[in-house]
Amino acid sequence: MNIKKAAFCYALSIIMVLFTSCQVMSSTKSIDFFAMDTVISLKISGKQADTALTQTKKEIKRLEGIFSNTIEHSDISMINQNFQADFETIHPETKEILQLSNHLSEETNGCFDITLGNFVKLWGFTEETKRVPSPIELQQAQQHVGNAHLKLADGILLEQQIQLDLGAIAKGYITDQVVNLLQQYDIDSAILSIGGNVSVIGNQQQPFQVGIANPMQPDTLIGSISVSNCAIVTSGDYQRYFEQDGIRYHHILDPKTGYPANQGLSSVTVICESAALADAYATALFVMGLDTGIQFVENHPEIEAIFVTKEGQVKCSTGIDSQFTPHSNVQVIS
Ligand code: AMP
Ligand code: MG
Predict the structure, then answer these.
(1) Is this prediction's pTM over 0.90?
(2) Which ligand is nearest to the CA of 251?
(3) What confidence tens digit (pLDDT) does each residue in 58-70 have?
(4) Quick one: which H or E segment has residue 29?
(5) Which of 59, 139, 254, 290 is the most exposed place for a label (fewest CB within 10 A)?
(6) Is ligand 1 within 6 A of the CB of residue 287?
């Protein structure tokens, strides 16, 4: 196929946290760096903010080195090479994230599925060169995708050729680990932004105002939500994609077909206590589409979501509706 200029686009600032002056205290320290193939921005307030930032950055890099399937000796690379591992030979965090992923895959009826590494490789989303795979390539890869091929009993057992990819949950899981770590450092408040994953923590008087990006114009917002002590994670078709022959191919794949999920949505933002869950559910809900997705959220009281359709309409789940302030020209559907 003739790829002319396949532009690979990657939206860096996905969610913005809108400060009010009282939230930025004199002891606020911040740092920006690149890890996990994304920009990480950490802002921490408290007496030990400097040490907390240094330790947080270290922890993020450590966990990236365990979970990344593009780092040679990571746990996931070793599992992908050998199709098996004893729990004793991998880090406890790997066991935990795999068990959680396995559960989430079953719960979302396979809309979230970490065994789709072969599909991700075919599209080249983790490589320099992106390309549209042929239908035959996708059909062949399909035989080596599916949560049933991953067994977690005494250790990890993958059927031959299965490849794991934690891209839809690792950032959230790592954010949760960082939130736990920060408990040691007497923190007043913190804003952790890892790609599309934001967590806000702290007991300041006013809640945080978190802006939700407009998928059609990601440097603008569709509105903002008023939240405290929670994770806000967006999966969207504007975050990573390339274009070929005028068609946009984004990175959120339907594990049942291998093609970019195309259920009428441009983004899904999930709000819940755990960033790992918010991350995985945001991806899964994007694959489900609006009707199935909103039903799923209403049956799970621990999560809330904001859906943006391809037409730019916004739908909030019942529990977040009153905390969402849309921008004036945004159409909210009830
Ligand atoms: P996210 O940005 O959290 O929605 O995650 C997307 C990333 O996770 C992609 O770059 C792939 O590496 C991987 N991925 C894509 N689609 C899925 C899916 N349906 N289930 C699990 N992982 C996925
Ligand atoms: Mg995700």
Answers:
(1) yes
(2) 1
(3) 999 999 999 999 9
(4) strand 28-35
(5) 139
(6) yes
Confirm or reject: Cβ of 120 under 6 Å from ligand 1. Answer: yes
User: Cα separation of 273 and 302, whole Å?
Assistant: 8
The two counts, helices (H) then strands (E), for the chain are: 8, 19
| DSSP 3-state of 30 | strand
Ligand 1 atom 19: the closest Cα is on which residue?
A: 112
pLDDT of residue 204: 74
Q: How far apart are the first and last CA of the chain?
A: 43
At residue 119, φ and ψ (nearest 5 deg) are -65, -45
Output the CA 22–ligand 2 centroid distance in Å: 31
CA of 247 to the centre of ligand 1 (A): 19
Ranges of residues in the chain whose predicted pLDDT is under 70: 1-26
| Closest residue by Cα to residue 17 from 35, 39, 33, 41 | 41
Provide the CA 206 distance to its chain's centre, in angstroms. 26
Residue minimizing CA distance to atom 15 of ligand 1: 252
132-182 pLDDT tens trace: 999 999 999 999 999 999 999 889 999 999 999 999 999 999 999 999 999
CA distance 115 to 123: 15
**Does residue 116's CB lie within 6 angstroms of at least one atom of ligand 1?**
yes
Q: Looking up tokens 């959220």, which residue turns up?
A: 297
Ligand 1 atom closest to Cα of 165? 12
Q: Could you tell me the two tokens for 156? A: 């990890």
